[in-house]
Amino acid sequence: MLRTQLVSSMLLMSMMLPGLAFGGGDAVKGKEIYTKFCASCHGPSGRGDGPAAAALNPKPRNFADKKVMDALTDDYLFKVIQGGGAAVGKSPMMPPWGGALKEADIHDVTAYVRTLVKK
Ligand code: HEC
Question: What mean pLDDT is predicted for residues 56-67?
Answer without folding.
Answer: 95
